[in-house]
UniProtKB/TrEMBL annotation:
RNA-binding listed as a keyword: yes
Molecular functions (GO terms): mRNA binding
Record domain Sm: where: 13-95
Highest taxon of the lineage: Eukaryota
InterPro entries: LSM_dom_sf, PTHR15588, Sm, Sm_dom_euk/arc
Protein name: Sm domain-containing protein
Entry GO terms, CC: Lsm1-7-Pat1 complex; P-body; ribonucleoprotein complex
Annotated family: Belongs to the snRNP Sm proteins family.
Ranges that cross the membrane: none
One Pfam family this sequence matches: LSM
PROSITE patterns: SM
UniProt keyword Ribonucleoprotein, yes or no: yes
Length: 141
């Protein structure tokens, strides 16, 4: 059985089914909970992927002082991601948050402001916990 040139069958097993997402914007959620947005340019039989125009989207869900949860994008350029690190990958309309249904709930901030917010959150968490427990030193005593 042969297929006409350029046609893609409705079902392709394994990583070959990614051919339909080539040259389209995708969102990847990785095992370390990072969110990567970019354009899928290539893949192999192990689901290793090459993402162009990639950016890591970072979230801060804290609602301190009545502020809305915030996010920022860190530009990364071309990125190769190992297939065993990908938890889920899906196609998105475009790479902006407004198109992903979060525009009204999240506020985009510059990276410097995001880092300042995260520092305040980290300091607040340490104050809540009191003395921080250090696994290595506390077990040795």
């Amino acid at each position: 059985m042969s297929l006409p040139f350029g046609s893609v069958p409705g079902y392709l097993p394994g990583s070959t089914s990614l051919v339909e997402q080539l040259d389209r914007p995708v969102l990847l959620i990785l095992r370390d909970s990072r969110h990567i947005l970019g354009v899928l340019r290539s893949f192999d039989q192990f689901c290793n992927v090459l993402i162009e125009q990639s950016k890591e989207r970072r979230f801060c869900w804290t609602n301190e002082n009545g502020k809305h949860p915030v996010y920022t994008d860190v530009e990364e350029g071309a990125t190769v991601i190992k297939g065993d690190q990908i938890v889920i990958m899906g196609e998105v309309d475009n790479l902006e948050a407004e198109s992903m249904g979060v525009g009204g709930k999240l506020k985009k901030v510059p990276l410097k402001e995001f880092n300042r917010i995260m520092e305040r959150v980290d300091e607040g968490e340490e104050k809540k916990r009191g003395k921080c427990w250090d696994f290595d030193t506390d077990l040795n005593n």
